[in-house]
Amino acid sequence: MKIGYKHIIGSILIMGSLAFLSSCCGDVKPSGNSDYELVWSDEFNYNDLPDPNMWIYDTEGNNAGWGNNEAQYYTEAIKKNARVENGKLHITAIREEIEGKEFSSARLMSKADWKYGKIEVNAKLPDARGTWSAIWAMPGGWTFKDGNWPDVGEIDIMEHVGHDLGIIHASAHSKDYQWQKQTQKTATIFVPDVNTEFHSYIMEWSPEVMRTYVDDSLYFEYRNERLGDSKWPYDKPFYLILNVAVGGAWGSMNGIDSTAFPQTMEVDYVRVYQKNP
Q1: Alpha-carbon 59 to chain mean position
Q2: Residue among 70, 120, 154, 221 flagged as catalytic
Q3: What are the structural domains of the chain?
Q4: Are 260 and 136 in contact (CB under 8 A)?
Q5: pTM to 2 decimals?
């Protein structure tokens, strides 16, 4: 979901890999929690702004030359865009003019980062045409000012655009595997009720393999080829990002239904596990 990110070619590229994944890996389930120790979580059992001890706001996407030509302005500590109530986190994109943008929204980053483990985010997704919701991860300490994306690596646990309702994407990006070269490691799964029901978006990550699931269904697997950082820059801590974008190179491919806003991604919980010794 970083600089100039496009998934225009995604559906074309992944159909073959989907058939392969279904045949070889479809019966693989996420590891049971007994294999892991819970090391970080937010159950959202409070009412307020997101816990400042756990989350910070990413507003770098508001700068010129950053992002994906998106239509939202990311706010900081504004309840209408990011709030916790009734046991859930609400990240809401609102149609309003702000700082030269047509919409406001929020992008949250975890203050903690982790090297390997299992990340589980239970969420219900927005569905309006023009929305682009994401659950993803970037290396700890990284900033767009470093100018070395995608070499540093990016892990997309879940991406969903409103004009392709129910199609969930997972991807891994690196110097050699990225959308500009049409070589990104990626796959999709169809989940028809993503906008009406909560689902768990899960990534399991080790030095050997990265796997992504929706609930118990594996649909993306990328094994470490042991060919260096240009293909596998994932042996370092990554932090978690939750956001709802509007428009952009991918989100607005079929335009933006501005009459459908506000649009919210609801998150029931976020849990991070690491392997027991």
Answers
A1: 16
A2: 154
A3: 10-275 (2.60.120.200)
A4: no
A5: 0.90
